[in-house]
Amino acid sequence: MSAERQLHAGDPTPMINDPSETDVPWRLPSHRKVGMVSLILTESALFTIFVVAYVFYIGKSLNPPYPADVLEFPLFGTIALLSSSFTILAAELMLKKMNRFGFLLWWGITILLGAYFVYFTGAEWWHLIYEKNLTISTNVFGSTFYSLVGLHLSHVLIGLLLLSTVWILTLLGKIPRDHTEHVEMISWYWHFVDVIWIVVLTVVYIISVRAT
Amino acid sequence: MSDTIIDPNFKAPPPERVGEEAGSLTRVIQGLVFTVDHKKLGLMYIGSGLLFFVVAGIMATLMRVQLFLPGNTFLEPDVFNRFFTMHGTAMVFLVGMPIIFGFANFLIPLMIGARDMAFPRLNAFGFWVFFFSGLLLFFSYLGAPGLYAAGSAPDVGWFAYSPLTAKAFSRGHSTDYWTLSLLMGGIGSIATAINIVVTIFCLRCKGMTLGRMPLFVWLFLVVGFLVIIAMPPLSACQIMLLLDRYLGAKFFDTQAGGSAVLWQHFFWIFGHPEVYILILPGFAIASEVIPVFSRKPIFGYPIMVAASVMIAFISLGVWAHHMFSVGMTSLGNTFFAISTMIIAIPTGIKIFNWLGTMYGGKIRFDLPMLFCLGFLFQFLIAGLTGVMLSVAPFDWQLTDSYFVVAHFHYVLIGGLLYTIFAGIYYWYPKAIGKMLSPKLGHWHFWLFTVGFHMTFFPQHISGFLGMPRRIFTYEADRGWEIWNQISTIGVFIQAPGILFFVGNLIYSYFKGKKAGDDPWDAWTLEWSTTSPPPEYNFAKLPEVKSRRPLWDLKHPEDPDWKFE
């Protein structure tokens, strides 16, 4: 068979039939995992710039309040958010065992912990805005603080939206059995949001408080 | 018909309404809006990129007319400011980016033997977000004056240095349109880049190991990563600018302890990798065209891959060479000068590898190859002036002068646009099924090349003579007239070249010679299917055993895989 003949479309294209390689199974990475890793990479780049801006402006505010005056270590919020990374692991374990009730329970606890974090941050902001007079336009500390913590908070909210969607769909029995990887990707995102919080916590509530 | 349930109340559906039969405008628009096919989206990217190219090109032409004579009053100064801002922004974000994404979209699935991109709907999302971000930018001409009646289109330059963008200096909404448009475009670009990376990792056909991918695909993998890492800083600065303008934040407010230089750093952390995001696809096209038209496999494939990855890494650490005149520490200046010189090494390696590919080859001077030769020659000049500008004291002399304008137009036109033309002449037969007319193409090439050098080479000299960029006019006794006049005349030689090109695209669509599946006797998988490819690309997914699967197919007695 001539080459030209084989080139016509619709023809199955038998490239080269060398048996040594055709038997080797052809494995490719999961597109969900690569996609989520890429998303996490791009989000990390976004956070990096806001963290750099925050660090760059430590001690550059011309007027009070300064971080040391107003910031309190967000102990309960942190405990809630960090432990949600473990409860989501428990939920995933239940998912692997196909234990629907266990999954709903742990996944639900994760949502509650995340929601508590949002509530905690909201209360903190209310305190800062109305009692300490720190707004985004007060000084560069205010601008960088609200933008960095707010960017993180927006990611927590997006995470909560995803988590709740999965929880409700599971309750309604709308998630097919072979969609465990979809659910797992959401937990990856949630872990990422947690890791970012550790960075924000260190930079905002430890380093900048010590430095001013 | 026989299995229809007989229903006495059944009425035949009304005949199709006027304008809804196949081929009508409504159907065509529906086809474009609803499609998630990577080939259609790719062509839509390239088509809308070319549309914005013509608009931004007309702006450039008008600016050159203004600069033809000293003290000219053809354009008002504020109109001129808007033109250079819109020209720059549009050429980078609405021409360069969509056209390279168009090539990626159309070709990557075909080259790796896949049926579509990994996330087809995300792909459509990316296109439409880009397209509307472009419309948003141009809508500023109508929408931006707002209640202030101040300013229409953005006039702060394409890198929008602070504090020009502060509320006090940029009233009205022109800067907001610029910011929102770039923020939106950034989201679309990141979506598309993630799609490209995932497609390349996860949809390769059997046997297409990373080491066997065409260099085109490799380079787009690198571009995808660069977009993923470098685009968010741009989005971050746009968010900060919006916060400054609307919520009174102090990021770039120097009176409140903010820093205008921080904007420059953040912008160029995006801005320099962006240059490589734009030029690496140019390298990608050259790396496909040059071997095919030299009738030799690419010289030094692994080195080419390594050099691309090196360029990507180093490009993340050279941004402040745009800022030598801002007053950094000498340590900073030295670091960025050296990193900039180092990035010339992998780029030089690539040029030598292309030359090595041609050396001893049986070169066919078809149009794609002609444009690639132009690219090699012009990109070399661009690279040399780039190394000159990396020397910080030299840059202090020539920063913000026409020398810089000449340098980056040699990069983006002489480098990128020439390879885009090469790519269009090379793959148009695949996409449309017709050959582009070589006669019109030669007119295009020669007019455009002569015009290009006439326009931009003299700008090196006017830069040396001290002419700053972005001035709307100049005085008569500076010795700049003759160089500006040659430059403007050059534009009027380039413009008919572009007309020949656009005319060729349209003419060949209707009257072009039928292309056949493999008109160039090429070696990568996209030539193994029909032209244009069917919606599913391949009836049976191919299997490859080497870097040149079609060579193996055409030369079963001497396949590549015996030597790899």
Keywords:
heterodimer, A: mainly alpha, Four Helix Bundle (Hemerythrin (Met), subunit A), elongated, B: 564 residues, Cytochrome C Oxidase, Chain A, 15 helices, globular
| Alpha-beta classification of chain A | mainly alpha
- Quaternary organisation: heterodimer
What profile does the largest beta sheet of chain B have? Answer: none
Q: Which chains have the largest interface?
A: A-B, 47 and 64 residues
Task: Please count the beta strands of chain A (DSSP E, at least 2 residues each).
Answer: 0
- CATH topology descriptor of chain B: Cytochrome C Oxidase, Chain A
**Radius of gyration computed on alpha carbons of chain A:** 24 Å
- How many separate helices of chain A? 8
Q: Quick check: average pLDDT of chain A? A: 89
First-residue to last-residue Cα separation of chain B: 59 Å
**Euclidean distance between termini CA atoms of chain A:** 80 Å
Beta-strand content estimate of chain B: under 5%
- For the secondary structure, the number of strands of chain B is 0
Average pLDDT confidence of chain B is 92
Q: How would you sum up the global shape of chain A?
A: elongated
Taken as a percent bin, the fraction of beta residues of chain A is: under 5%
CATH homologous superfamily assignment of the domain at 80-212 in chain A: Cytochrome c oxidase, subunit III, four-helix bundle
Helices and strands of chain B: which structural class?
mainly alpha
**Uncertain segments of chain B of ≥5 residues (pLDDT<50)?**
1-5
Protein architecture, described:
The complex is a heterodimer of chains A (212) and B (564). Chain A is an all-alpha fold and 212 residues long. The termini of chain A are far apart. Chain A is elongated and about 65 Å long. In chain A, helix 6 packs antiparallel against helix 7. Chain A has a domain of 133 residues: Four Helix Bundle (Hemerythrin (Met), subunit A). With 564 residues, chain B is mainly alpha-helical. Chain B has a single domain, classed as Cytochrome c oxidase-like, subunit I domain (Cytochrome C Oxidase, Chain A, Up-down Bundle), CATH 1.20.210. Chain B is 65% helix and 0% strand. Chain B is globular. At the A-B interface, helix 3 and helix 7 of A face helix 5, helix 6, helix 7 and helix 15 of B.
